[in-house]
Design brief:
- This is Pyridoxamine 5'-phosphate oxidase family protein.
- The chain is about 30% helix and about 30% strand.
- It has one domain: Pnp Oxidase, Chain A.
- The radius of gyration is 12 Å and the shape is globular.
Length: about 60
């Protein structure tokens, strides 16, 4: 559940997302498009090289 405090932070600050790949190589970057979809989901547009998405999908397999 996303708290009211979390909502306020997302709405007022530049979000940064950090992930690692299978080899432990870090990837961190700003997500200027970060928004709340509902009370439990963040969404953003992956408009760079897609490494964040690749890393997240790799962990979920």
């Amino acid at each position: 559940m996303i708290t009211q405090e979390m909502k306020e932070i997302i709405n007022s600050q530049l979000a940064m997302v950090a992930t690692v790949d299978a080899k432990g190589q870090p990837n961190i970057g700003p997500k200027r498009s970060m928004r709340l979809w509902d009370d439990k989901t963040f969404i953003y547009n992956e408009n760079t090289d897609g490494q964040t998405r690749i890393n997240i999908e790799g962990v979920c397999q």
